Every structure is written in structure tokens, then in C-alpha cells.
């Protein structure tokens, strides 16, 4: 602003110098000229003042605008900084979003794998459950088939076992074909002291055992056709499969003229041996009362022991089956699988029975004595012996 005023003053002095160098004119002309120049100069000064005023206003406006510009510039810098911060935050959020997306993709893949594994496991469990059910059904079917097969072979099995006992103990075995009476021939019989002792094998017709006790009772009455012969002993035996004992509640029938005993194949040998014991006496009517009592006592002991053995075996068979059933339903699955593996790896090899090899009583007694010693060492209490005889 000051520079512009100074410029106008310099220009005025230069103009005045040029004016003074002009030729001299009359005073009136000079006065007029001076008046005109003064007016012109005043006009110029007025115009310059106006210009200066305008320029001053423009400078003030420019100063205000400059101040506003600086403020705007500062605001712009602030906004730019904010924009930069926002851009950095946006980039950070973008990176985090990408990381989250990748993590979500990984999680989705893991979830998909977990679902696939769960489905596979479920299918495997369903297949295993189906397999176990199939195995159980198959086991039941196999057990039923074995049971029916055992029943179908029961008659032949009893005949073979009775023949084996007779061979080992020098007893006459009488087959069905050799039975001396033409009609109503039993499955098997033996001859002791010129008397025929009948052993008739009986087994269920099907897997329904509910009618088997009634069937046995009816068969005891049908044995009259054998007992009516003079050379047939009035003690007759019905031999049933051991796996039908659970439905039998009566093992002795006193029909009147004869007695019927219901036994299993395991009881054949002790009963036959007890009957053969009578053969040591030439005539039964010559036995003293004490000797008769001894014979009856031995036979009674054999009968009671046989029944108790059957009863105990049946009791433990039920307990073992109940324990196996609880093991299958109550054990944890992983433990049960290991148990099944160990079970499949185990194998029991009981002593084999060979032909013409006698089972000596002294050997059995030595084994029992050895077992009693082991029980004493392990402090296992013995069961008190039974003194009653349930005939």
C-alpha cells in the first residue's frame, strides 16, 4: 500500500518538472493552466484516493481472504490428516476383515470337516450298531440252531455215550434192535443181573420249552409199556438235554408199579456205575439189611450228587449269562471292545476223553486234594457238605 502511494508521488513530481520546463506564458494563462492542472491533479488525487481506498478495501478483503485461506489451509491439513488416519484405519480394518474372512473360511472348513467326521462317525456307529444287532441276532440264531442240532442228535449222542460207558465198565449194552420184546422198543438199555434197565432219550420238538415239562410227564406214563415186562427193571430213566433243565421242576415220578427218573447225559455214568455195584452180589435177596442200606445209600448219594450238580450248573449258568448280559449293556464301549478282543484271543482246552482210557478215582482224588490245598493257601472257605438226600 505504501509503495503504491510513493509511486504516485514520484509520478507527480516528474510531471511537475516537465511542466516547469515549458515556455513561459502570461500570468492569466498560467493561472488558468494552473487552475486546470490543479483541478486535474485534484481529480487525479481524488481518483487515486478512490483507487487507494478501493485497493485498501481489496487488501483488507485479500487479508481477510488470506486469513481465511490460511484457516482453510489449516483445516485442509487437518482434514488431510484425518483422511490419512481414516485411510490407515480403513486399511487396518480391511486387513482385519481379510484376516477375519480367512479365519472364518478356516473355521467353516473345520466345521465342515467336523460335520463330515461326525456324519462318518454316526454312520460308523450306525453300521456298528447294525452289525452288533446282526451279530446278536445271528448269535441267537446260531445258538438256536446249535440247540436244535443238539436236540436232534440227542438220541444218538445218548446211545454213543451209554455204549462208551458200557465198554469201559464191561456192561452189556442192548440196542433198540436187540431189545428182546418185539413191540415198543426203547432207545437204549443195559443189562445188569439179567435185568434190562431202560434209558429213553427225550428232547423238545421245537424251541418252545413251555410244553416240555408236560411232555416229560406224559412220557413217564408211556414207560409202562416197558415196565410191564418181567425182565425190565422197574426203575426207568428219561435222558433229557442239559440245556432244558431250567424248565424242569420234577426229576422223579413214582407211577406206582415203577419209578421214572429224569436225568441228563452227564448223570449217565455215575448212575450206571451205581447200578453195576449191585452186580457184585450174586443174589440181591441174600444181602443183609446193612448191605442193602449201604447199596441204597450209595445209589441215593449218586442220585443226590447228580441232581445237586445239575442244580448248581444251572444256577451258575444263569448267573454267568446274567453277568454277560450286564457286561454287554453296562460296560463303557471302549472297555467292552477290549474285553471282546481279549475274549476272542482266549481259548479253553478241557481234558479230552479218549477211548479205553480209564478215569481213575485215585487220580481224581489227588486233583481234588491239590485243589483243596490251593484253596487253603488262598484262604477260600469250603462249602459245608449236604447231609440230606433228595431222592
Set out the fold topology:
Elements: H1 2-20, H2 27-152, H3 154-169, E1 172-175, E2 188-192, E3 195-201, H4 212-222, H5 224-227, E4 235-240, E5 252-254, E6 259-264, H6 268-277, H7 289-330, H8 333-345, H9 361-377
Parallel strand pairs: 3-4, 4-6
Antiparallel strand pairs: 1-2, 2-3, 5-6
Major beta sheet summary = 6 strands, mixed
- Domain tally: 2
Give the number of DSSP strands. 6
What gyration radius follows from the Cα positions, in whole Å? 64 Å
Please report the distance between the alpha carbons of the first and last residues.
150 Å
| Helical amount | 55-70%
Helix and strand content put the structural class at alpha/beta
Care to describe what's here?
This protein is of the alpha/beta class and 391 residues long. It has two domains: 2-84; 153-377, no CATH class. It contains nine helices and six strands. The chain has helices spanning 2-20, 27-152, 154-169, 212-222, 224-227, 268-277, 289-330, 333-345, 361-377; strands at residues 172-175, 188-192, 195-201, 235-240, 252-254, 259-264. Strands 1-2-3-4-6-5 form a six-stranded mixed β-sheet, with helices on both faces. Strand 2 (188-192) and strand 3 form a beta hairpin. The model is unreliable at 386-391 (pLDDT under 50).
Amino acid at each position: 500500500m505504501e509503495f503504491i502511494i510513493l509511486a504516485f508521488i514520484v509520478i507527480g513530481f516528474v510531471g511537475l518538472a516537465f511542466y516547469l520546463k515549458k515556455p513561459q506564458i502570461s500570468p492569466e494563462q498560467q493561472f488558468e493552466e494552473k487552475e486546470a492542472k490543479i483541478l486535474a491533479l485534484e481529480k487525479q488525487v481524488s481518483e487515486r484516493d478512490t483507487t487507494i481506498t478501493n485497493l485498501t478495501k481489496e487488501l483488507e478483503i485479500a487479508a481477510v481472504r488470506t486469513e481465511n485461506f490460511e484457516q482453510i489451509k489449516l483445516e485442509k491439513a487437518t482434514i488431510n490428516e484425518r483422511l490419512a488416519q481414516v485411510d490407515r484405519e480403513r486399511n487396518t480394518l480391511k486387513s482385519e476383515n481379510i484376516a477375519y474372512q480367512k479365519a472364518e473360511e478356516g473355521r467353516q472348513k473345520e466345521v465342515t470337516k467336523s460335520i463330515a467326521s461326525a456324519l462318518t462317525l454316526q454312520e460308523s456307529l450306525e453300521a456298528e450298531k447294525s452289525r452288533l444287532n446282526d451279530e446278536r441276532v445271528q448269535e441267537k440264531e446260531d445258538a438256536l440252531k446249535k440247540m436244535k442240532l443238539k436236540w436232534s442228535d440227542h438220541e444218538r449222542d445218548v446211545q454213543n455215550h451209554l455204549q462208551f460207558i458200557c465198554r469201559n465198565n464191561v456192561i452189556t449194552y442192548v440196542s433198540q434192535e436187540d431189545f428182546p420184546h418185539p413191540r415198543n422198543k426203547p432207545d437204549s438199555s443195559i443189562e445188569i443181573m439179567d435185568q434190562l434197565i431202560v434209558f429213553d432219550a427225550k428232547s423238545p420238538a421245537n424251541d418252545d420249552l413251555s410244553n416240555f415239562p408236560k411232555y416229560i410227564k406224559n412220557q413217564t406214563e408211556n414207560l409202562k409199556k416197558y415196565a410191564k415186562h418181567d425182565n425190565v427193571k422197574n426203575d426207568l430213566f428219561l435222558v433229557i438235554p442239559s440245556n432244558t433243565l431250567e424248565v424242569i421242576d420234577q426229576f422223579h415220578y413214582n407211577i406206582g408199579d415203577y419209578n421214572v427218573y429224569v436225568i441228563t447225559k452227564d448223570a449217565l455214568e455215575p448212575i450206571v456205575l451205581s447200578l453195576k455195584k449191585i452186580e457184585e452180589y450174586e443174589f440181591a435177596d441174600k444181602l443183609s439189611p446193612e448191605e442193602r442200606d449201604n447199596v441204597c445209600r450209595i445209589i441215593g448219594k449218586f442220585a443226590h450228587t447228580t441232581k445237586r450238580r445239575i442244580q448248581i450248573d444251572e444256577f451258575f449258568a444263569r448267573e454267568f449269562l446274567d453277568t454277560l448280559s450286564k457286561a454287554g449293556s453296562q460296560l463303557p464301549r471302549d472297555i467292552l471292545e477290549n474285553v471282546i478282543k481279549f475274549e476272542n484271543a482266549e481259548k479253553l482246552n478241557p481234558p479230552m476223553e479218549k477211548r479205553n482210557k480209564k478215569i481213575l478215582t485215585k487220580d481224581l482224588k489227588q486233583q481234588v486234594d491239590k485243589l483243596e490245598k490251593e484253596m487253603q493257601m488262598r484262604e477260600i472257605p469250603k462249602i459245608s457238605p449236604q447231609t440230606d438226600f433228595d431222592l
